[in-house]
Amino acid sequence: MASGIYLKGLFLQPFLLTLLLLPELISVLYASEDSDSITYFEPGHPSLQQWLLPVPPITTAANAVEQLQLGKLLFFDPRLSANGNFACSTCHNPSLGWSDGLKTAIGQQGISLNRATPSLINVAYNKIFMWDGRQSNLESQVLGVMGAEHEMNADYEKLLIFLSQNSTYRRLFAKAFPGKHINKETLAAAIAQFERTIISKNTPFDRWIAGESAAMSADQVAGFQVFINKTKGNCASCHHPPNFTDDGFHNIGLKSFASSNPDLGRYNIKPIKISKGAFKTPPLRGIGLTAPYFHDGSAATLTDVIDHYTQGGEVTTNIDPEMKKLSLSKIEKKQLKLFLEALTTTTDSYPVPILP
Amino acid sequence: MKVYKLACFSIALIYPLLLTADVHIVDQKNKEFSTNELRVKVGDEIRFTNQDPFFHNIFSLSDTMFFDLGSYPQGEFRSIKVKQPGVIEVECAIHPSMNMKIIVEE
Ligand SMILES: [Cu+2]
């Protein structure tokens, strides 16, 4: 009798355990259905709203307008660099999609740098900065680049004296940062605030998402389907909504990773196997303006980019598990390219300020 | 009958394990862990279940427990068994915004 009760209890325990875990099991089942939820390719459809960019976080600071106006002058001012010849805009050129059109950046005295200049388009939505993510906010990114020996090589002591002796800068700093000094902190805050105004959120794609059916052609809509479809382009796995980036790191199998001394990228910051040769996923709005592509600038055109992904990368050593050979027809590849072109607005001329 | 007895015997063997070691489930969904902080006991197991339609990774550089369980797709999980008290910072190497803390108590 006693053993009978014991047995009953014995069977009851796993049963209760299962009962306790039931909500977990249910949530797992529902979640997988949830994440595979269907996207409807109709302009303005609710399932597409995840691609709408939120209002950018520019105006949150007090005196935000004064700060970004000051930041715009500083951004274009080469006197911030050691030799007085190198501004933020030297590499982040508004005429070249806020990048430089080069394979990899050229620093002071023509020194070639290792990586391509990232575009500043939609940097306000960015959560982590630099190709290897070594900066966690835009202000520290600004100071890092300004102080880097082969970049602006700023002598901050001299620079702060220059700014405080220039009457216009002195006045603008006082307006932008009442009660604060002209220092590295306010300097970086102003430039970062300006950079956050470089926004692309009215592309043909955005207008189509908002419901304007004529904004994208039938081919472009088909290209968007290729982009999202996991068994086709699988692009959205990393180029997530809403800013076409997962703010993450991937080794996409570039040829340069097979060189004798490859750039290890994210691995230098987080020494985890998967990070070896991994670089940050760039957002895609404005890419029509930012060629060449990839962190090493090895793709000259969007067609080259698509070809690279279609063949599943060139070097498969430590390649990201999301990378695989794609079965895309010639037409699908063309549609994908047309879709990517719908992520850029035609540029208006950009007025560059006269420096004080 | 023999099979029945054998089954009872095996369950009786497993039973104490069911009682002592807890299994904690942490979901990975929408590029987030389902919790920022988890309190567990030495000997417990923590399962990280990937519910996103893309790969996640699990690693920790903590002194308490150093591990890299690699990357895995939707529907799969990786687990760790904690062996000593302390704090374990868990991260995803693909998505740096994903991080959580496991507090292991005696
Ligand atoms: Cu992840």
UniProtKB/TrEMBL annotation, chain A:
Highest rank taxon of the organism: Bacteria
Signal peptide start-end: none
Compartments reported by the entry: Periplasm
Cross-referenced Pfam families: CCP_MauG, RoxA-like_Cyt-c
Record key words, sorted: Heme, Iron, Metal-binding, Oxidoreductase, Periplasm, Signal
Gene3D superfamilies with a match to the protein in the record: Cytochrome c-like domain
Residue span, Cytochrome c domain: 218-347
Alphabetized InterPro entries for the sequence: Cyt_c-like_dom (IPR009056), Cyt_c-like_dom_sf (IPR036909), Cytochrome_c_Peroxidase/MauG (IPR051395), Di-haem_cyt_c_peroxidsae (IPR004852), MauG/Cytc_peroxidase (IPR026259)
Protein name: Cytochrome c domain-containing protein
Organism: Spartinivicinus poritis
UniProtKB/TrEMBL annotation, chain B:
Predominant place of localization: periplasm
Domain of life of the organism encoding this protein: Bacteria
InterPro entries: Amicyanin/Pseudoazurin, BlueCu_1, Cupredoxin, ET_Amicyanin
Range of residues in the leader sequence: 1-21
Keywords: Copper, Electron transport, Metal-binding, Periplasm, Signal, Transport
UniProt cofactor(s): Cu cation
Subcellular location, record wording: Periplasm
Pfam families from the UniProt entry: Copper-bind
Blue (type 1) copper domain ranges (all copies): 27-104
UniProt protein name: Plastocyanin/azurin family copper-binding protein
Native source species: Spartinivicinus poritis
